Structures are given as structure tokens and as C-alpha cells.
Amino acid sequence: MAENGFESNDDYEFQLRCLLESPTTGIRTLNIEGEGERRKTAFANALARSLSFPCVLYHDFTDRHPPPPDVILPPTRDELGREEPPIDPLDQIVSEACAQSEGDPTILILDQIQAADFRDHIRIHRLVANGYWDVRDGRYFANPNRLLLFLISEEPLYHSLRKESFRVWINRHSERQLVYHPTPFGLGPEAQPLFDALAGLFRALGAAPTPSEFTRILSDLRLHARTTEQLRLSLYGRSEGIDRERLADPSHEELLRRVVEASQALAVIEHIELSGDQRPGGRSEASD
User: Fold this and answer.
1) CATH number of residue 102's parent domain
2) Which of 60-64, 255-259, 282-286 has the highest mean pLDDT?
3) Domain shared by 41 and 67, yes or no
4) How many domains does the chain have?
5) Domain residues for 269?
6) Strands (E), the chain
7) Containing H/E element for 148?
8) Which of 170, 204, 225 is where one domain is finished?
9) Angle CA 91–94–97, to nearest 5
């Protein structure tokens, strides 16, 4: 999922197995809950692409100007000559998902459901439980073996819809602390003091950088960060889960200083090894 835009130290494998491998009589539905912002949306889109479904459709109930459909139907009139209103964007996207699922595995992402009319909640529940979607006088049937539904809401779902879904919680940032070691980063045991100092700092900050975030912080330390203030800027700039006010707390100054000193000590060791000057007295083999 990291390759598709969502990286986390938290493991969602068990929840996904429950969703995808448990028997069901309706449409498999994932109810994505969590803290604010759009991390839930990033999770849904990354998961959809990681599952390699050929068809992924998306609808946001807060989007007042949705993109036009691929096929624009001409206006129609009833038997009395009255022009029918255009098809609602929700009807358009759900009916398309049902039709696509007849031939290809399809994921439909419905985002910001709290902004939907409550009658739409009931219709979505009917789709999940019974596998069909009514649009005016037409009925579209979904293939429950090929359609997967992701529901994202900032508020609890309608009770009946919640009962038909598997719920997963997405944190604002990673909570699982990973223990990093020098070897995977191409470093030797001489880098262990730096890694220990970073681990102590992360624990004090309540932060859990992901592998890519840690890699970038490590790069900044080796190339740019020479003071505790520069380290603060790097940590805030690189890690999504670090709180700015907590990082600025003077009580963390000593831990920041230890990281900077360990980084500078490592730079000295690497310089000595690079120059070949590893003998006491500063003489290298090349000078003998």
C-alpha cells in the first residue's frame, strides 16, 4: 500500500482477511472510520489499487461539482412531454459500479457519507443487503462476488448499514513503534548510538516514523542537520505524526542534542574510514 500512497506502521492484514475471506450473502462492505482529515480516503484508494481491481469508482458526497460521467445521456421526456431531471451523480456512479461488476472485479468508494441525505443511507443499505440499486424505473443488479464497497464517514453510519459492514479504524498517524537497526540502512554497528538516540527521542515525542520517514530523517541528519533547531525542522518536515508543539517543548532539548552529537560522531567515524586513517595518531597506511 505504501507504493500506492498510504504508508503506516500499523498492520491491517487481519481486518482485510476478515472482510475478504469470510462468508457473506450480500455485498462485502468496509466501513472506514478514523480521525479527521483525508487519511481515510488515502487508505481506501491505496487499498483499492493494491488489490489490483481493474475498475475503481469514487464518489464524494461533499463534492458540489463532480466530474461529468464518461457517457452523457440526452434529456428525456415522459408520456406527458415533461422533461425528466438529469440523473443524480450518486445514481450514475452506483449504477455504473453494478454494471461493471457483472464483468470485472469492481471497487466503489463512497466518501464523506455523513453529508448524504438519510434516504441515500437507506438505499445504500438496500444495495449492500440485497444487491440491487433502483434508478427511476430501472433496477441495476450487482454481482456480490465481484463488487467491493468502501464507505468513509466522519460520523457513525446508519445502524442497519453499520451492521452489514466490517469496520476498520484508521489513525491520524502510525501508532506502532518500529525498532530500526543500522544494517538495513547500509550502516554498521558504529551507527547504533545514533539509532538509540533517535529511538529515545521518538519515545519521548510519542512519534512512530514510518520506514520512509525514518530514511529521510536519517538522510537529513547525515547531510544537513547540525543543530537541535535544524533537527526539529527536519523531524516536523519529514514525519506526519510529530506534534509541532510537543517538538518545541524545551524539555526535549537534551534528547535532541544527543541525536545531533551522535550524528556528528558518526560523521567523524565515516570520514576516518573513508580516508583510510584508522591508526592511532592519525596516520593512515598510505602515509607509511
Assistant:
1) 3.40.50.300
2) 255-259
3) yes
4) 2
5) 183-287
6) 28-34, 55-60, 106-111, 132-135, 138-141, 147-152, 166-170
7) strand 147-152
8) 170
9) 145
